Amino acid sequence: MQWTIERLGRRGDGVAVGDQGRALAPLTLPGEQIEGEAVDGRIAAPRILTPSAMRVRPACPHYRACGGCSLMHGSDSFVAAWKRQVVETALTAQRLTAPIAGTHVSPPKSRRRAVLSGRRTKKGALVGFHARASDVIVDLADCLVMDPRITAALPLLRRIVIAGASRAAELTLTVIAGPAGLDLAVTGGRPLEPALFQTLAALAEEGDLARLDWDGQAITRRAPALLMGRTQVVPPPAAFLQATAQGEAALLGAVRDMTKGATRILDLFAGIGTFTLPLAQQAELHAVEGLAAPLSALTQAWRMTPGLRQVTTEIRDLARNPLLDQELAGFDAIVIDPPRSGAEAQTRQIAESVVPKIAFVACDPVNFAKDARILCDGGYQITRVYVVDQFRWSPHVETVTEFVRR
Known about the structure:
Helix 1 runs parallel beside helix 10. The strands form 4 sheets. Strands 6-21-22-20-19-16-17-18 form an 8-stranded mixed beta sheet, sandwiched between helices. By secondary structure, it is an alpha/beta fold.
């Protein structure tokens, strides 16, 4: 059966229109004519009859199988414009308009944090990303997204999986490529008995890993410190980190500009201090985060760095126990960087506050737009939005938005 691709859905699949109605078709582009059978609303293997002028040949040999990327068949200009459109469409759905002040796209091979899967096999081990809509692991030989240091370590990661995985288990390997080298955290492995510890320690030495954390037990050869502003932060294993250094710089630059002149700033969902520590060079900060370990790393880094303004911290589940509007009084600006699900409860309290400006970092345009609607209904207005693409060739897109109280 033949179909026409009407547009891309927000997850990057083509929305195909045909005599049987609509279906999703991966690896297609708007305007293309395709052929294929739809099962449960999805055309798993579309055949391109009339390709789009925006179609390019994917450079990665794993592309058709690997689920890590889904838009490599589109030109860079198409993908950038589509991600911008995703943001605009999400805002429009909430009856909001906002000027897109700029767009950042991180370069290839810049992803410094990757979450890989590993599994033992009869012949060795598989390490890579899952195939699309599957629990099958695509064993990577190369990757155009990850930092080359992570790609170069794939043979070592396979040996670690062979050493520490049971045949039935799938391991999760979170790798961060930082200034001190690779910081590896593995979960799902066998218990760290003495023999396994010795094997892993030898592999960490051979691969020159900064740290190898095995289900919470660390083999640390040197501190895997990261630079936040001029502060060295030693993150907890598998810590959240902005995906690329370039993307982090783009977000931080926008946040700095949006909070310029503020002397007392509230940083919500602060993590290890991505925004807190650089901003503490000019203002006092109160950092709030739901997990103790990131805040401990942030506090330790602040104490070790002379010349910063006062930084206080608070462990608090902002989804269940948001800061109330009375607690927000006295802050000149709020920086908020919530999880993908958004921050409805906290946003409702901010909407009741008198804080003059907000820098809102978000990684899901649809949920962000819902939060933005709450803020605008509460008396704020959007003055500018930046689109930041740290997840090149994937449907994910981030934004940083300035709100000012009317």
